Amino acid sequence: MLEERRTTNILLLFIVVPLVFYLLKLLSFIFIPLISSMFIALLFLPLMRWLGRRNIPRLASILIVIGLFAVVVFIGVELVQLSSRQILSNNADVFAKAEIKIKDLMLYLQEEYGLVYETEGNIITNLFQQENIGSTFDFIRKFLTNLLMIVFFTILWLSESINMHKVMNNTILKRKHTSIKAFMKIEKDLITFIKVKFLVSLLTGIFTGLACVFFDVSFPIFWGLFAFLINFVQMVGSFVAVILLSIFAFVELDPTSTLLFFIISITSVQIVFGAILEPIFMGKSFSINVITVLIMLMLWGFIWGIPGLIMAIPITVFLKIIFEQFPNTKIIASLLSGPERSIKPLKK
Q1: Residues 42, 19 share a domain
Q2: pLDDT given for residue 128 in this prediction
Q3: For residues 346 and 179, what is the distance between their CA atoms, to the nearest angstrom?
Q4: pLDDT averaged over consecutive 10-residue blocks of the chain (348 residues)?
């Protein structure tokens, strides 16, 4: 009987897990804002408690948090507008220079490898066709809708209309003392992760922008902002930033030692902050295996796209802490962790 029950449970697991992922993908318009807002609310929970200890009403505390969030969004919008104005004021020279470099590269490839390309029209302007405008507006509409839903769910989390601890206690852990300690660990680790990731991404963006200024590469504000945002995608973001900026620098700079030193500089920025300082700041409290990082990036990227890539590691940290609490799933938690990590469940 026990063997039959075990076989049945395994079969049910193979059926349920793909179904859960399918529902997560199908209902992504709800789950992406919900999970994103949960991580944002976790970040502001210590501030909410600090305000509560000073007898500030919850409504006033929520308004303060919303005000801080609005200031961050306002600064982001201003930076985007500033970089946009910078691009529009210099686009003619940059695009003309890019046109010449790309045509030279295409001619070289045609002569050496027999590659055939269309010579009629402007290569750069052909990238921005009229039919792409509709998709741009659709992207903006979806982005604003998700942003409003994230704000709405964040307010619900902070006002405890959705109580994270009670949800965990009633659905997953079902043990009051264990759920409290697990929730405290999740909050502590995720807040540490978000803070460190934000600081490292900010420093990466600043020094990337400074490298552009020093080597006279156009649009330093845009590239600094891009490096800051793309760095939230674990591992993949660093490669994307270096490759795209190197291609752009190839268009702007002559292929001399200056271009080489610029590429070395932006690569060094990614290595120093991403590969050296970030692990030091993170510590070993929730180390995750590199293979696990890659698998989770592919999984959540496939399910939720770019938001999935950004939230893949926080979700993995959350799942790892949950798996640590049960004897049957401790092996999964140890696989998610680095090889040196010793898993110890929280005491009841």
Answers
A1: yes
A2: 47
A3: 9
A4: 68 81 89 88 83 86 86 82 72 63 64 57 48 58 83 83 68 64 78 85 93 88 90 84 87 79 92 83 67 86 88 86 79 72 44
> What is the pLDDT, as a whole number, of residue 264?
92
How far is it, in rounded angstroms, from Cα 316 to Cα 301? 13
Identify whether 109 is part of a domain: no
- The rounded distance, in Å, linking the Cα atoms of 322 and 316 is 10
Contact status, residue 321 vs residue 302, Cβ threshold 8 Å: no
Residue found under tokens 């390309």: 117
∠ CA 178-173-156, rounded to 5°: 100
pLDDT score recorded for residue 129: 47
pLDDT for position 112: 61
* Cα–Cα distance measured from residue 254 to residue 251, given in angstroms and rounded to the nearest whole number: 8
Please report, as a single letter, which amino acid is at residue 165. H
CA angle, 215 as apex, 211 and 220 as ends, to 5°?
55
DSSP E strands, the chain? none
- The counts of H helices and E strands in the chain are 13, 0
Q: Which residues contact 288 (CB under 8 A, 6 or more apart)?
A: 313, 316, 317, 320, 336, 337, 338
Distance CA 108, CA 255 (A): 15
Dihedral sign from CA coordinates of 105, 107, 112, 115: positive
Q: Is residue 26 part of a domain?
A: yes
* Residue 250 domain flag: yes
Same domain, 213 and 326: yes
Whole-number pLDDT of residue 207: 94
267, 236: one domain = yes
Query: Are 86 and 112 within 8 A, CB to CB?
Result: no
User: Do 343 and 330 form a contact (C-beta atoms < 8 A)?
Assistant: yes
How far is Cα 159 from Cα 66, in angstroms, rounded to an integer?
A: 12
What is the number of structural domains in the chain?
2
Domain enclosing residue 51, as ranges: 1-89+136-162
Residue 338 lies in a domain: yes
Same domain, 143 and 207: no
Retrieve residue 193's tokens. 């992760």
Contact 308, 236 (CB under 8 A): no
Q: Is residue 52 domain-shared with residue 180, that is, in the same domain?
A: no
